[in-house]
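Methods — Computational structure assignment.
A single polypeptide chain was analysed. Its primary sequence is given first, followed by the predicted tertiary structure written as structure tokens.
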Amino acid sequence: MNNKLLLAFFFFICNQFVQAQHCEYDNAQLIGMLPHAENSNQIIEGLKITWIDKDGNPVLLNKTPYQDDPKAYSIEKSSLIAWRNPHLYLSFLNEKRNLQKRYFPFASNHYILISSFYGQDIFVKIEDIDKEHNGGHFETKIVTVPAAYILKLCGYRHPSLKHETTYKAINIELKRLDKDKKNAVEKQFGDYNFDGFEDYRILTQVYYASYDYFIYNTTTNTYIKDTFLSTMSNTIFDWTHKNFRGGQLIILNKLSRQADHYDFYEGKLTVVHRSICTQVHENSERSDCTIYRLKKGKLEFAEYLQGAE
């Protein structure tokens, strides 16, 4: 009897060891952050959030092994800077090993960090690096991350109720250093084409967050309106990682419209999701929509939604 108990115990230990060895994300954890201004719940764009140690120095790590090529490990060390959870329509990127391209449904559009945070106090430094673009200069702030806000990713492969119910984003309130917001509203400055020169934009439509973009031309030393960017709405610029997301609405005729969602794919700004919706009749609130998603570099039919609106 004792031999049977010993054998059962042995198999139990072996099973636990195997599970530990096959933990997804190599026992990594996720920290989600929602930085916002005073008296506002809207996330602040264009921030640089870095994992630092207790002395305020960036924590240096080997570059992530979660790359498109799983064999491409690197001995180069770099600081860990938060990125924005990718766009909802980029679910095809869940197949990628690169962490910064993976979509976590429970993390909304938050800033996220993924690493192994076990057994140490975690601090993050938040810096406003885009000047007036996000509505005013915000303070630099260092925040301690409570253990309750560090989510274990072991066991996570696809969207799961377990992670959705346990995930909590840290609410980080930042004070504006620039109290005069008029100039920030009229002209918002930023490097909107990532060429190293400051451009500006002017709000044209509040509901869809649409802007006219004026790009600095080094040859003429003047600002020239960018007709492509000016057709975009709900744009997000990530200056830290030189990334961009946005949408474009095209009216095809009285009953039909096309909505394109752009993101970087293999280094190029590409339509990753397209919906073409047609009203049943001119005064109808119902539309039938055909949905296309990017797959292996091409837009392919995904689904047909009847009565989508």
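Note: The two ends are 67 Å apart (CA to CA).
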